[in-house]
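Hi support team,

I'm opening this ticket because the web form for multi-chain structure prediction keeps timing out on my end. I have pasted the exact lines I submitted so you can reproduce it. The total is 458 residues across four entries, so I didn't expect it to be a heavy job. Is there a limit I'm missing, or should I split the entries? Thanks in advance, R.K.
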Amino acid sequence: MQYLMIKDAIEEQIESGMLKSGHKLPSERVLAESFSTTRITLREALNHLALSGKVYKEERRGWFVSTDTLSFNPVTDTDFAKVCQKQKWHYAVSSISAQRVLAPKEIAETLQLPPFSYVIMQTKLWTIEGRKAAVQYQYAPEKQFSNIAMIDEDANLTEYLKVHYLCESQKNRVKVEVAPATELESSTLNISSGSMLMSITQTAINNQNISYLLQVLRISHDLVTIEIE
Amino acid sequence: MQYLMIKDAIEEQIESGMLKSGHKLPSERVLAESFSTTRITLREALNHLALSGKVYKEERRGWFVSTDTLSFNPVTDTDFAKVCQKQKWHYAVSSISAQRVLAPKEIAETLQLPPFSYVIMQTKLWTIEGRKAAVQYQYAPEKQFSNIAMIDEDANLTEYLKVHYLCESQKNRVKVEVAPATELESSTLNISSGSMLMSITQTAINNQNISYLLQVLRISHDLVTIEIE
DNA sequence: GAGTGGTCTAGACCACTGT
DNA sequence: CAGTGGTCTAGACCACTCC
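Hello R.K., no limit was hit. The queue was backed up. Here is the completed structure from your submission:
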C-alpha cells in the first residue's frame, strides 16, 4: 500500500516540525512526482491524513497543515466567542444573513413550535486564526421575543436575549454528528462540496423548561474536540 | 459534476425504498457501467454517500445500505448493551481479548494513575443487526479492585464493578471525535484501514470523585447519533 | 474459479486562483 | 498568464470472498 507510506512520510514531516500549522503543502503534482506516483494515489494519502485531522484542503487553493483543536463543551458553552477567547485564538465573526423566516420543519419540531411560526434566523461565518472555520445558524422563535425583528445583523443573539429578555439557558440539549457540507457551507468555507463537517446542535432551555434558542455550529472537524465534563 | 448526479440517483433509490436497509448494492463495475462512467467516478459518488451515512462498505465484500442510527447519550449511558436493548436492536458482544497490561500513557493520564500502574483491559466486538459495528475498549485500574484479575473474558466489566465493588458512576467525563480506524479495528470490523469511525470516550467517576473506569467505543459513524439531554 | 473491491498507472480537460 | 485543484477516462493487476 503505497498510499499509506506516502501518508506516513507526510505525517512525519508534520510531526517533526518541518511543516508547521497553517503552512501550505506543495502542489499535488509536485508531491506526486516527488513520491513517483500519480495524483490519484497521492490524493488517497492526503484524504486519509485529512480524516485524522492533520491536514485540510481549501477549494482550488491547496492543502494546508491543521492547527491544534479547540476544546468545546456543547453542554455548557453556548457562546462560541467565549470558547475561542478562553483558548486565546484569534477569531472573527461576520454576518452572512439575518432574516425572519417561516420555521423549517426540523427547527419547528425541535423548538416545539406550532405550524406557521416565524423564527429569527441568523447565519454567521467564524474565521479562526485566519481560516474560514465554521458556519453557525441560530434560530429564536419570534413569539417569545416581541420586537426581536429589529435585531441588528451583527448583534450576538445569545447576548441579546440575555440582556433584553433576561433569557439565559439553564441547560442545553445537544446533538453531535458528522455531516457533509451543504452548498452554502462549502462555498462560504471554501471547501469542496460535500466534505466532512462536525455538526453541533444546541437547544437552549430556560428555567420554565421551554426551548428558546436553537443553534447549529458546523465546523471543520480538524478544528474542534468535543469534551464534556 | 457527474458524481453528484450519480450520488443523487443512488440516494433516491434508497429513499424511495427500492434499496432497503442492509441490502447490498450492485458491484462497482455494474454500477459504473449502468451510469456510463468509470469506477473511480462511481467510487467518488459512493464515498460521498457514505459520509452522509446512507451507505457503508465492507472490505472486499461490497457496499450496503445503512440502517437507522442508534441514539446514544454518552453522559448517562455507560452500558452499551442497554442502549441497544432500549432501541430493540439485535446485538451480540464477543470478547476479543482480556488482559492485564501496563497502563498506556493516555490511559494512565486520564485515570490519573501513577507510573507503572497496571490496568485490566477488555476488548470487545459489538455486532448489531448482523453487522460488525463497533470495537470497545475498557480499562479499569487494578489497584482499585483487588482480585479483579480473575474476571471472566465474557463478563461485563461495568456490571462486574457494580456488583462486586459497589462501584457505580456518578457522572462521566466524555470526549467525542472522529478518527481513522486502527489496524485492529479495520480487520475486526471488516472495513478498509483508516476509514472513519466515531470515537466515544467515557471516563466514569465514582462518588469519591475518582475515575475508576475508562471505556472507548469506536463505532461506524452511520450507526449512531450522539444526543445529550 | 468467477467475481469483488483495493490499488495503481498515465494520461486529459476544465474552472478557478493568484500574480 | 501560469499554476492549482476538480473531475474524468480507460484501462491494469492483485488479494480476497463467495460459491
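A quick check on our side: The mean pLDDT of chain B is 90. Let us know if the file doesn't open in your viewer.
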